[in-house]
């Protein structure tokens, strides 16, 4: 589900206010998952990196290039599908897809449980 910018920001703020940012082994595990599911499994994506930022508002930054011939629509479908199916926590999530003339971007936030840890971030795919 792609949510509006206002709805996404509100959901993200609520998760951040009610939980604590992921860190340590848990955040490392999420980084490994992003690397596996986006960088290696999505056919529409080429090589990329996953980095922790230290900023609770965007704990992870994933950057990669689009695979040759991949359309923005295909990229958006693959990254949002991987997010919903494999990467988010089961309790709560919000995400939005944005596109520019040179990128397709997925902003995300997820929380492990009521008052639990949260992970926020952005996936940037260069066209």
For the residues shown, what is the average pLDDT?
94
Estimated radius of gyration: 14 Å
First-residue to last-residue Cα separation: 23 Å
Q: Can you write the helix and strand succession as a string?
A: HEHEEHEEE
Sheet with the most strands, sense and barrel status: 6 strands, mixed
Helix content estimate:
25-40%
Shape: globular
State the helix count.
3
By helix and strand content, what is the structural category?
alpha/beta
Give me the secondary-structure topology.
Elements (H helix, E strand, L loop, with lengths): L4 H14 L1 E2 L2 H17 L4 E11 L2 E9 L5 H16 L4 E8 L3 E9 L5 E10 L1
Parallel strand pairs: 1-6, 3-6
Antiparallel strand pairs: 2-3, 4-5, 5-6
What can you see in these coordinates?
The chain has one domain (10-122). Strands 1, 2, 3, 4, 5 and 6 form a six-stranded mixed beta sheet that branches. By secondary structure, the chain is α/β, with parallel strands linked by helices. Helix 2 packs antiparallel against helix 3 (72-87). A hairpin with a 5-residue loop joins strand 5 and strand 6 (117-126). The chain contains three helices and six strands. Residues 1-24 are annotated as: Disordered.
């Amino acid at each position: 589900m792609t949510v509006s910018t206002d709805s996404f920001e509100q959901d993200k703020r609520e998760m951040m206010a009610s939980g604590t940012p992921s860190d340590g082994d848990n955040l490392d595990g999420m980084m490994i998952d992003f690397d596996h599911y986006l960088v290696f499994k999505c056919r529409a994506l080429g090589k990329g990196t996953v980095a922790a930022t230290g900023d609770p508002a965007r704990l992870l930054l994933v950057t990669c290039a689009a695979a040759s011939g991949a359309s923005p629509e295909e990229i958006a479908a693959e990254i949002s599908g991987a997010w919903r199916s494999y990467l988010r926590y089961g309790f709560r999530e919000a995400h939005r897809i944005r596109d520019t003339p040179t990128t397709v971007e997925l902003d995300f936030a997820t929380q492990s449980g009521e008052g639990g840890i949260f992970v926020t971030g952005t996936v940037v795919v260069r066209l």
